[in-house]
Amino acid sequence: MRQFADVFGSEPEVEASAPGRVNLLGEHTDYNGGFVLPAAIPQRTQVFMGRSGDEWCRFYSANLDQQVRYRIGGALQVGFAAYLVGCIEVPRTLGHKITPVEILIRSDVPMGAGLASSAALEVAALRGFRTLFGLDIDDLGIARLAQQAEIRYVGAPCSLTDPMVASLGDSRHLLFLDTRNLQWRLLPLPEDSEFIVLDSGVPQGSALRGQHRRRAECEEAARRLGVESLRDIDDPAVVGGLPEPLALRARHVVTENQRVLKAASGVSAAEFGELMNASHASLREDFGVSVPALDLLVSLLQRHPSVYGAHLTGAGFGGPCVALVKAGHGAEVKAAVLDAYSAEGYRGRALV
Predict the structure, then answer these.
(1) CATH superfamily, domain at 193-350
(2) One of 162, 178, 232, 339 is an active-site residue; which one?
C-alpha cells in the first residue's frame, strides 16, 4: 500500500487509530434505551494526517486506492470522504478550529461486515484532529461527535454504541453501556475465554429495512404499554397482552436487557455462553432477524466442545455471528466450524 509521503510528498504530522466493535450481548437494545455489552475488536483503522499547504483537504484511502479533494464548507461528499467531512464540519459548528488537512486512511476492520468500520474511521479521524489542532474534546465527546458526523453527513441513523466502543473500549474488556444515560464501565472478559467472529457469507441486503421495521414495532409496543421506551419494562410477562408481533419484539428487548445485566454482574464463561445461546434463540424466535445460514453457523459453533456460546450479531438478516470460546482455542474453532459450514454448501469466513 502507498504511504503518506508517496501520496502527499511529505511526512505526516499525526497518526491516530481506533478499533471496530462486536456485541457480545445486547442486540437491538440500544435504540430502545437499554443496555449493551460490546467489545472492541483487534482490527483497527489508522489515519495519518498533516496540514494542507492550500485551501483544499485531500483524503486518500489506501484500501480503495482512491483520493478525494474537499474544500471546507463546500459541497457534500459521498463514500468514505463523507465520514471525514462530517468529522471536520460537526466540530466546526461547535467552535473548534480545523484547517485544511491531508489524510491517508488504512484499515483492517472488515468493511460492510457489521463490525462498525465507519465508527472506527470517525473516531480515528477525530482523535487525529484533537492532537493536530489541540482540540479540547474528551473521549466521550469524541464519540458524540462521531455519531453526529454519521447522522448529519452520511445520513445513517446510528446509535452512540459504536463510537463509544471505538473511543472508550479495547479488545481485552467488555464495555457495559447504559444507552439511556451513557453511564459506562469496562469489565473483564470471563475467565479463560476469548471471542471470535465469523461471517455467514449471506449479504445483509434487507437488514436496514428490517431494522427500521423492528424499531417502529418497538416504538409502537412502548406506546401501547405507556412507557417512554421498552427499557422501562423489566418483567417479560407485562408484554404478553400486546398483539403479535409486538409482544414478541418487546419480549426480546426485555429479556435481552436482563441477559446483559446478568452478564455484567459477573458470571463464569460457561454462564456467559448460556446467555449468548439464549440471545440467539430470542433473536431468531422473538425478534425475527435470523436466517437459515446464520442459524446453521451458530448451531455449529454451539456444538463445538471449545465454544461456550454463540449468537448472531448486528442487525441480522445475514452477516456475522460472535462466539465466546476457550482461551487459546479460537483458531481451532474457526477452522473446524468453517469446514463444517462449507460442507453444508455455504461459504463463510473468519473476521476476528
Answers:
(1) GHMP kinase, C-terminal domain (3.30.70.890)
(2) 162
